[in-house]
Design a protein that fits this description.
By secondary structure, the protein is α+β, with helices and mostly antiparallel strands. The chain has one domain: Histidine-containing Protein, Chain: A (2-Layer Sandwich), CATH 3.30.1340. The protein is built from 5 helices and 3 strands; from the N terminus they run ααααββαβ. β1 and β2 form a beta hairpin. The longest helix has 22 residues.
Amino acid sequence: MKTFTLALTLAAALGACKAKADDKPADNTAQNQRDKSVVPTADQAGQNKSDVSVAADVRKSLMNDSSLSTNAHNCKVVVNDGVVTLAGPVASTDEKTKIETLATAVAGVTKVVNQLEIAP
């Protein structure tokens, strides 16, 4: 009897999850298509030692700041000839400004292009 009840409960839960998943697309293809023409992608990042080092240092700076949200920690960082492009959703205007400030403070950064968006 316990096995039957457990199986029935799991089936109901899976059905509810499936119904919820069907309400909204599981991907962000439309946003990716929009960003493709505006935001540099990782394959467009500079591959010289300086750009790779700057990108790593910016990423470390962001990851070391525990006050930032998960989205902020996962924002896109693309470096090309010392120009850092930041993109992705963040929690607030303050967080957007803080990320830009952290990136600007990294040695080797010549300019920061802040394309971060405030998440709804």
